[in-house]
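Hello support,

Our group uses your service weekly, and this is the first time we've seen a run hang past the timeout. The protein is Metallophosphoesterase. I'm not sure whether the cause is the sequence or the server load. Input pasted verbatim:
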Amino acid sequence: MRSRDVKIFFATDIHGSDRCFRKFVNAGKFYGADVLIMGGDITGKMLVPVIATAGGRFTSHLFGRDREVSAEELPALRKTIADAGFYAYDTTPDEIAEFREHPELVDKTFRTHMHQTLSAWMALAEERLAGTGIMCLLAPGNDDPLFVDEVLGSSDMLLNPEGRLVELPGGFTMISVGYSNPTPWKSPRELPEDQLAERIAREAARVPDMSKAVFNLHVPPKDTPIDQAMALDDEFRPVMKAGSPVITGVGSSAVRDAMATYRPLLGLHGHIHESRGEAVVGGSRSINPGSEYSEGVLRGALITLSTKKGLRGYQLVAG
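Update from on-call engineer: The timeout came from a worker crash unrelated to the input. Re-ran successfully.
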């Protein structure tokens, strides 16, 4: 059999950034990729109210400061909010007062906007990728609510790889686990390390050949160059020592053990935005492309797999 190269573009942790998602969809053609993989934490973290006031003006609070715009400037404000990973919500002072009295309405509205935005993104991806032959996988991460799986599973063209063995071009296979070990933020998909290990083991049992397996595990392996972040106290403040923040490994021991035990061809990770780079555990290479979504910058990894040589190489890219 002749050797064949398979080119993968992997990005993760865009947290609702419209600009980053559009760049992700366009990356297939731009880089000549056969497969696009979004590694998790797709959805945004909060609503940003845009409040209609007297005189046809609109106010909003973004990036720590109040903004006031005219009707003509409103589309640009909405775009700034969406590109930063938030959901612009047109509202009134009366509705804001109602939200304060009934917080459950905020959750319902947030979920509605999340659903609408993700559905629109998927329609965009289907339109842009139709007829290209590019495979597109959209995986949930620990920050994505559970209902997201239903939305991601609604397409005949785009695939949600969570909980399934995905056959990639060239005979490679991929498993995905978007859950994390416990975090200070108590996000929607967290498990104790032993339960996370069980979930990974259940998915790994599907793999026919580890030498051609890709493990898309949202959290990086613990105590490696790609899981380093500031330690936080119970008040979410940085732990300081000798005047400097303490940097520590906040990844998963279950993921580290899995990489060392199963030794797949490749590990794809995210979660820790500031730990862009690679790690080698048990002879398996793990990659975290990092994230700079709030600036509208899409960080990714362009990976080449060879049907005869395995991992041929990779390049960390940004744009």
